[in-house]
Structures are given as structure tokens and as C-alpha cells.
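Lab notebook, bench 4. The sequencing result for the construct came back, and we need a structural model before the next group meeting so we can plan mutations. Quick request posted to the team channel:

Model the 3D structure of this chain.
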Amino acid sequence: MFGLGRIVGLAVSLACGLATSQAPELAQQYRQRLNGALAELSQVVAAFDADAAKNNLRRAEALAAYETAGDTFLRDRGQSVQVAIGRLETLARQSSAFDALPAVARPLALIKAPDTMVLKGMLQDFEPAVPVTPHGLIWTGAGLLFGFGSWSLLRRLFRRRKVAPVRNLRV
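Done. Here's the predicted structure in C-alpha cell form:
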């Protein structure tokens, strides 16, 4: 029959497979939030650029006007706009990196350099999904193999060594 070690090994393998099967869904939900944040920040920066153009200024000139303003509020507002522009550029690069990867590799892009605000929101609202896509099944299989390999390694490291019985040799 099955020994306890095999049952635990199977349970560990299934748990790892279940966990990694969610990697594509995690990446998908992150990507959706990323693109939503990108769209919103694009509108904010576009409105700033439009206001600058309405006053015959380029973006850099408008930001410089904020920096040289005598009012602390306006200088702070200029810094806020610069932060938003920088974040927009970062999110755009990350979105392009996601688009350049095949679907099966997108969870790796998420691990590389996630935006903390987007990641935090995604993790709060994450809903698991059944992995019915080919890349979901690949990640499930990878998790199963990882779990089985990890359990096998641990079992080998901590198993009792069988001691050969001492034979009484008669001469």
C-alpha cells in the first residue's frame, strides 16, 4: 500500500501545483491593474501637458515655472507632477515588458520589478482561477514537479540509514 511518506509527498506536490497554477492568473490580474493605472496617469499627464500648451509652454518649461514659483504650494505641486510623470514612464516600461513576453513567462516579469502600489492592490483583490489555459497547465506541472522534488530531497536528507546487521561469522 502507500506509505505515509508517499502520501505526504503527494500532498506537497499537489499543494505546490495548486499554488503555482495561480501564477498566470496573478500575472493577468496584475497586468490589468497596471494598464488601468497607466491609463489614469496618462490622462493626468496629458491634462498637464494640455494646460502647459494652452499657455504656450512645453512640459519642461511648465515644470520649471512651478519650481521658480514663490508659493510653496506651487513648488510642491510641481514636484507631485514630476513624480507622476516618472511613475507614468516606469509603468509604461513595465507594460511594454509584459507585452513583449509570451503568456507563459509573464509571471516572471511580475517577480522581476513589480510596482508596489499596483501589486498591493492586486493582492488585496486577487481571486484564484482554474488553470485551463496551456500556460496555466505548464505552471501547474512545474509546481507539481517542484513539490515532488522538494519532498523527495527532504525525505532523502532526513531518512534513517539502514544499518547492515552484524553477522556472526563462524570459522
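Residues 31-127 form one domain.
Will bring this to the meeting.
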